[in-house]
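Postdoc handover notes: sequence design on the structure in folder B. Input tokens:
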């Protein structure tokens, strides 16, 4: 009986192995920064959808960028809640993105 209790308890205490990275929850207004000291994430623009970490849908309004992977690119730094910098090498990036034209496809690839 004690062994069964330990197994059940252990099952609930095991950390979630499918925990997603922080960037998988990114949505909202995005400002593309040139100064590396001011960015939150370094992003590589992946030419192939298959190899991208995240698919990004470019929303037409900041109010529509309310789900993970829906980004509204803004020129106003004060309006942004995410600051990224595009890098030329994948090895320098925190994650990679590929733009999608279908809003429902937006989000992390690792979760599919």
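Designed sequence:
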């Amino acid at each position: 009986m004690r062994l069964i209790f330990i197994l059940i308890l252990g099952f609930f205490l095991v950390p979630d192995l499918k925990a997603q990275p922080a960037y998988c929850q990114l949505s909202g207004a995005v400002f593309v920064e040139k100064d590396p000291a001011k960015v939150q994430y370094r992003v590589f623009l992946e030419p192939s959808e298959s190899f991208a970490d995240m698919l990004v849908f470019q929303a037409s309004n900041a109010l529509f960028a309310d789900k993970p992977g829906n980004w509204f690119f803004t020129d106003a730094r004060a309006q942004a809640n995410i600051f990224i910098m595009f890098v030329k090498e994948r090895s320098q990036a925190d994650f990679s993105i590929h733009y999608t034209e279908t809003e429902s496809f937006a989000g992390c690839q690792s979760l599919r």
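Context for whoever picks this up: The chain has one domain: 26-108. Don't rerun without checking with the PI first.
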